[in-house]
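Homework help board

Subject: predicted structure for assignment chain

Our instructor gave us this sequence and asked us to write out the predicted structure in token form, then describe one feature. I got the tokens but I'm not sure how to describe them. Can anyone check?
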Amino acid sequence: MKRYSAFSLLRNALSHNRNWRPAWRSPAPKKSYDAIVVGGGGHGLATAYYLAKEHGISNVAVLEKGWIGGGNTGRNTTIVRSNYLWTEAALLYEKSMKLWEGLSQDLNYNVMFSQRGVYNLAHSLQDMRDIERRVNANRLNGIDAEVVSASELGKAIPYLNVSPDARYPILGASLQRRGGVARHDAVAWGFARAADALGVDIIEQCEVTGIEVKNGKAVGVLTTRGSIASDRIGVVVAGHASVLAKMAGLRLPIESHPLQAFVSEPIKPVLDTVVMSGAVHGYISQSDKGELVVGAGIDSYNGYGQRGSFPVIEHAMQAIIELFPIFSRVRMLRLWGGIVDVAPDACPILSKTPVEGLYFNCGWGTGGFKATPGSGWVFAHTMARDEAHELNAPFSLERFTTGALVDEHGAAAVAH
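My token output:
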């Protein structure tokens, strides 16, 4: 890895970065590719990277209508965990967790993955029963999980309100110590740079306006930069999957909703873990810059807006102040909304479609960021071999007609 002296950094800074080499190329689109990935977010870039690295398919184009890191990848709360209830989901997310644990080394890029632990709080006896059930299920699948008492929580998180007189008293929690957070834009940049180094063309400002299908087979895409041919097309456009599916004459069983979050002004380090509560409906961590990162639930209405409604934010603030009264005077700095697509069973779609050569990766709902490397890994396998890997086989489109759903609504733990 190239090293820079303090003088070199200063010289480049004063030159307004004119002499810095771009992290990835900006090529003009070719007329055809062996594979096209529509969507330059984390999942799409990971798919392209693993197509090249694991399957030797490097003549790949990633088509992004905006800029890398400008979509949902940069509009989330960066939580990573794998403690899902059902085996099918747990094993998929655990694959992702294992990739996270070596991702910075693999990409030669610091994605700032911090395994600071994730707590899911319980406020009732039923919450505790659910937590114990999930912890036992995790352990049976070889995933780290433990039950923590209220007194242990008070010692581990000093500013958490564990008083029995609280409006929603905390009875305990589950803890996944390997869980944590990562830097969202660094993940996108790291995958983009690594994919580019393997020969993948990353084409920004290139919106797909149509999917060409002939005799039941995908043959290419229409874009704002011309038509591009390929008989292998993977669509990874969180929030807009139904729009792209319609271009190919498909209708997907998903709904799109705004998902909101906000950050506070920077404060000194006070919270070194992630705390989530489904009962009061909020979750919180502290970023490396000192900001408190707070997430809420999805807005109930369908839409593609990136602002959301104020009552959701107000409810999340009430939840966080209930859990951490010391934050009541901290000022909010900014808020944003992402667009999530939700399937009926709160699990993703990683699947072939009735159109030969057309594949969809969508429906992650509010859990997409944590699955980034694992999602790309299994989707690359599906695109390269035209068959599902055993990890994503349960998440095919056919499950909505056979009834073999994987119901993870209970493990969503608020929104994440």
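Reply (TA_rk): Your tokens look well-formed. For the description, you could write something like this. The chain has two domains: 30-78+184-253+345-412, 114-179+255-342. That's the kind of observation they're looking for.
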